[in-house]
Design a protein that fits this description.
heterodimer; A: alpha/beta; Rossmann fold; six-stranded mixed β-sheet; four-stranded antiparallel β-sheet; 6 helices; 10 strands; B: alpha+beta; 22 strands
Chain lengths: 227, 867
């Protein structure tokens, strides 16, 4: 029986803007096993980014239970979530989110530095990963000097540097052309298939479909299908 | 250790590299801080240098003395020295005399001549003689061996080209005499008093020169070892038994402490004013750190999402602020080195004119002052970055997922801030009514801070309301650009208000000081015209610098009384006394019956119609407002003072304005003084032509000639108009330093506006480019930025003016009264205010140009595509 790494029960997130309430997620029940590559699909406003942000510990649920890699995120403090993000999660963003004043190597090393690893050790590891990604010749370049594909690959290496249990990717191909998008998805697929990483991708693109072990459809904050 | 390394690594990667990336705005802020820190440091260094110069001079004169004997406004008998020498409590006693003399050469300046006993003085004070020939300590004996010899300082020798063996002519109040230079003093000890502008002669030669046989200015005592261990009061009682009643025994440091006390308020007020520049610079730091926190919000969210704690982000931004403060402080050094020379010269001159004579030759970089300046600058910068750091730490990590920059809601509403602001402003006046602590108007300063902070906090609400009210008007007269600018100003919240706060502070200071200076000047002008009236002023030679210690010789008085010119004489005798509250003031016995025919007093309390006849009848005195406030006396109280060997006592009949000295003046009628106490002689006389048809241009030179013919050439004579011009020029010079400090504060405020407008543009670049995308052209968008700047500046100026008027009342009726004892007749110089305010608006609009250039720095399409 596959080990469950993510478990959500009646997970709800409601946003309050003045007198208005907006339902981001409504009573989501979900289980994700170790080593899966799950794709959340749905149009804009379906709740997939909200669900991703909760799984990443970037936000608190309004109600319900959420356990990720044995961390009960509904009950974890702000400090606990910070540690959780350092140790358990690697995030890949649609707009890459590389810090513009840091070069490629420094961007990649950042999460490990924040987690308290010695700099020398991190650099050795980072160089290995960047070599594997084909970015060894870009290590001292700033993000402004990279192409979109190179930026996203750098972001993926950054997400992996702390050997996280789960990699979360929010529209990883959203700002890329089709060729680079396919390359990035292939990379994520390889991480999942070869290295058994648990990967969760939120996207409305079809590029992720060939690599998904499961697809979950969301609409208006609810899961409407898991074919 | 690792967390510390991480922190500094992040500081370098995240903060310092960003500053390097946007170096123009960083340099502007550094310049603002450097200016503020330079002003603050330079003023403090200059103030310290003048205090130290004076204190060291006093210490060198005091030497090893334990006690000093003197007689207020008089001299003491020389024979007391021999009586004291045999007193069991006294180990040594020596006399000292001082006077200012003038070398009889062109462009000469007065210097101090000391008369002392070369034998006895060796154990009291330190001075050595150096001569180009064989150096021998026995040279000092030549002062005794040969009369009318002196040692001059190295400074004087170089200034006038004198050397050992030269004969020089010196003039004094009574006469001139030739002295032989017996040697040059080594630049140490006594030779450094008053910037090294002094000479030493034997006391007998001094007495001969000054015509003061048998009396000395003071006797210094060194106590016997046994007496030094006793309680001071016991020793004083034992000494007093052997001394005349009117001889005063004091500690040597009293003169120093009195002088320091006189300077204290002036120095404190100058330091506070210099701090204002730093305070305004604080807004610059806030603007830049807030800009960084706002424009890099997404990066902060990424940092949070990758594991950075809120505390880490908080300290990153605090460190940014501290870094700006530290580097700005270091950049202040070259500015300080230029500024300090100007300030030192101005402050020394003012102190010498108003309080005590100082000559600052060298400026030392005092480690403590450097530390104070660094600490205050960095602390101010840290305070300024607190709020942006707080906002930075509250960035939610989920914002990293957002693809578009979200508008930031400012939690504190303008209305709540306005409520707090009104409370602060209303508290300002009652707080200001609290009494001073010593001479320090602490409550006054606290009330000023309440005013500044209050008006700054009121500005978001004011901008909101004015933006709302003016929008229809702006649309009508300025078009859509002005309308949108009004709407933005209305909704911009606290961030715009900070820059408005900087401008309000600078404008309020400017307006308040313009009003204070114009009120002061117009009151001084009134006083000068009415009370410092006279066509010709005659005093003893060097009488003023020697504090009128010696009256005019009887022959001169007779000569003046016999003048054939159609003049009325108003003789006076001045005494410089020390009040028991340790401040110096003047007692002026003047022929008031003649004076009131030609001049007037400017009254504060008392009816002149009633008081003047009483005064002339010898029923009392009138005192200046300064004296009354400092002595804690009012109309009806009794004035008491020891003058020479006489106790003078008189009721106070009225209070007038007089700005002659920092300690004030007490006026009485000269004939009444003579009748009641003793004949003091005349220090000087002012002459009035008693016919209105006299042409003073020709009459005054003729009068001078007649006086020289009848009385000799040993007098100082000043044309009345010239004297009044000199007084007003001294006043203007005194406030020149203040004006420079104020202009620097305004410059820093202008830099603040530049940075704030740049902040606003960069924060809204997506919005501005959206406007472009929906049909606005570049001209309209740029016009909108200018309108925003104009609205911000007009709002800031309006609030600043209101704040400035309130502040001017505080300055005139609280700060000045508690610090210096004087107030002025409130008067607004509308011309200066009217001319300067448009200039401030223009300066601020010019400061908006860099912000306007930023609007289309990147292609609109790029910005609209990005998040």
């Amino acid at each position: 029986m596959q080990e469950i790494i993510i478990s959500a029960k009646k997970l709800t997130r409601i946003y309050v803007h003045g007198a208005t309430e907006v339902i981001g997620l409504s009573r989501i029940d979900l289980e994700i096993g170790l080593g899966e590559l799950v794709v959340f699909k749905g149009n804009s406003g379906s709740g997939k980014s909200t669900l991703l942000s909760l799984l990443a510990g970037l936000d608190h649920p309004t109600s319900g239970d959420l356990v990720v890699a044995e961390h009960d995120l509904a009950k974890t403090s702000e400090r606990g979530l910070t540690l959780f993000r350092r140790q358990v999660i690697g995030m890949v963003f649609q707009s890459f989110n590389l810090l513009p004043t840091l070069n490629v190597l420094e961007n990649v090393c950042l999460p490990a530095l924040l987690a308290g690893w010695p700099y020398r050790e991190i650099v050795i590891k980072a160089r290995e990963y960047l070599n594997w990604m084909g970015l060894e010749h870009r290590m001292t370049h700033l993000p402004a000097q990279l192409s979109g594909g190179e930026m996203q690959r750098t972001a993926i290496v950054r997400a992996l540097i702390n050997d996280p249990a789960i990699v979360l990717a929010d529209e990883p191909t959203g700002n890329l052309d089709s060729q680079n998008g396919e390359a990035v998805m292939a990379l994520l697929g390889e991480l999942n298939h070869k290295f058994k990483r648990t990967i969760i991708v939120a996207t409305h693109s079809r590029l992720a479909d060939p690599y998904a072990t499961r697809q979950i459809y969301l609409k208006d904050g609810r899961i409407i299908g898991q074919p | 250790m690792r967390p510390i390394f991480l922190f500094f690594r992040l500081l370098t990667w995240f903060s310092l590299r960003n500053m390097r990336r946007y170096r123009i705005r960083t340099l502007i802020v550094l310049l603002g801080i450097a200016l503020g820190a330079a002003v603050f440091s330079s003023v403090r260094l200059s103030v310290k240098a003048t205090i130290d110069s004076f204190s060291q001079s006093m210490d060198r004169v005091a030497g090893h003395s334990d006690l000093v004997l003197s007689r207020p406004a008089g001299r003491i008998a020389e024979h007391l020295i021999s009586d004291l020498t045999v007193h069991p409590d006294v180990a040594g006693a020596t006399a000292l005399m001082t006077t200012y003399v003038n070398p009889v050469i062109d462009d000469a300046e007065p210097f101090l001549l000391f008369g002392l006993d070369p034998l006895l003085d060796r154990t009291f004070r330190s001075w050595q003689v150096h001569s180009p020939e064989n150096i021998s300590n026995a040279n000092w004996l030549s002062l005794i061996a040969e009369p009318s010899t002196l040692f001059i300082s190295d400074v004087l020798a170089r200034r006038y080209g004198w050397s050992a063996g030269d004969r020089i002519t010196l003039e004094h109040s009574r006469r001139s005499a030739v002295f032989k230079v017996a040697g040059i003093l080594s630049p140490e000890g006594m030779a450094l008093v008053e910037g090294g502008r002094l000479a030493i002669t034997d006391i007998a030669s001094f007495q001969e020169f000054a015509g003061l046989h048998g009396v000395v200015d003071r006797i210094d005592l060194v106590l016997a070892p046994a007496a030094a261990k006793l309680r001071r009061e016991t020793v004083l009682q034992r000494l007093a038994v052997t001394l005349p009643e009117d001889v005063r025994i004091s500690v040597p440091s009293e003169t120093k402490e009195t002088g320091q006390a006189m300077m204290r308020s002036y120095h404190l007020n100058l330091s506070i004013l210099s701090f204002a520049s730093l305070f305004v610079g604080m807004f610059l730091v806030y603007s830049l750190v807030a800009l960084n926190a706002a424009t890099r919000r997404h990066e902060l969210a990424v940092l949070r999402s990758t594991g950075a704690s809120p505390g880490l982000l908080f300290f990153l931004f605090i460190s940014e602020g501290c870094f700006l403060g530290l580097v700005g402080w270091m950049a202040a050094f070259p500015i300080s080195s230029f500024l300090v020379k100007y300030l030192l010269s101005g402050i020394s001159r003012t102190v010498s004119t108003l309080f005590v004579r100082v000559h600052v030759e060298t400026l030392r970089l005092d480690a403590w002052e450097v530390l104070v300046s660094l600490t205050v600058t960095v602390f101010i910068s840290l305070l300024a970055s607190l709020q942006p750091a707080w906002e930075a730490m509250r960035v939610a990590p989920k914002e990293a997922l957002a693809t578009a920059r979200q508008p930031v809601a400012h939690p504190m509403t303008a209305r709540r801030l306005a409520g707090f602001a009104v409370i602060l402003i209303l508290c300002a006046w009652p707080i200001s009514r609290l009494p001073a602590v010593g001479d320090v108007p602490i409550a006054g300063y606290v009330s000023i801070i309440c005013l500044f902070v209050g008006f700054a906090l009121l500005s978001p609400y004011g901008l909101q309301k004015s933006g709302k009210l003016l929008s229809p008007v702006l649309r009508r007269f300025g078009g859509v650009s002005a309308y949108l600018a009004g709407r933005y100003v209305r909704d911009s919240g606290t961030r715009t208000a900070v820059s408005a706060g900087a401008l309000i502070t600078a404008v309020a200071l400017f307006a308040a000081l313009v009003i204070m200076i114009s009120s002061f000047r117009s009151t001084v002008e009134l006083w000068v015209q009415q009370t410092v009236s006279g066509d010709l002023f005659v005093t003893t030679r060097l009488g003023s610098i020697n504090r009128f210690r010696d009256p005019l010789p009887p022959a001169v008085v007779d000569g003046l009384k016999g003048l054939s010119a159609p003049v009325d004489l108003v003789p006076s005798r001045r005494f410089v006394l020390t009040h028991q509250k340790y401040f110096e003031y003047e007692l002026d016995a003047m022929a008031l019956d003649v004076f009131v025919r030609h001049g007037r007093f400017v009254w504060v309390d008392g009816d002149p119609e009633r008081v003047l006849p009483q005064l002339i009848a010898g029923e009392g005195v009138i005192v200046s407002e300064v004296f009354a406030n400092r002595a804690g006396l009012s109309k009806g109280d009794v004035y008491r003072a020891q003058v020479s060997n006489t106790l003078v006592e008189w009721p106070i009949l009225g209070i007038i304005r007089d700005y002659r000295t920092s300690g004030g003046v007490v006026f009485c009628h000269l004939p009444a003084f003579r009748e009641r106490y003793f004949d003091p002689g005349w220090s000087g006389v002012r002459l009035f032509f008693n016919r209105k048809t006299v042409d003073t241009a020709t009459a005054i030179p003729q009068l001078r000639s007649e006086i020289i013919d009848r009385c000799g050439n040993h007098l100082d004579m000043v044309d009345g108009n010239e004297l009044r011009r000199i007084v007003l020029r001294i006043f203007d010079e005194t406030f020149a330093v203040t004006t420079v400090l104020l202009l620097i504060a305004l410059l820093i405020a202008a830099l603040g506006i530049t940075t704030t407008l740049a902040v606003q543009v960069l924060e809204r670049s997506r919005q501005l480019n959206t406007l472009f995308a929906v049909g606005a052209d570049r001209r309209q968008i740029r016009a909108m930025i200018f309108w925003e700047a104009a609205l911000l500046v007009v709002a800031g100026e309006t609030a600043g003016l209101i704040c400035g008027f309130i502040l001017s009342y505080l300055l005139i009726y609280v700060i000045n009264v508690q610090s210096f004892g004087w107030s002025f007749i409130y008067q607004v110089n509308w011309r200066v205010l009217g001319l300067s305010l448009p200039l401030i608006v223009i300066t601020a609009l010019l400061a908006a140009i860099p912000a306007v250039k930023l609007v289309f720095r990147e292609p609109p399409a790029t910005l609209l595509r990005q998040g």
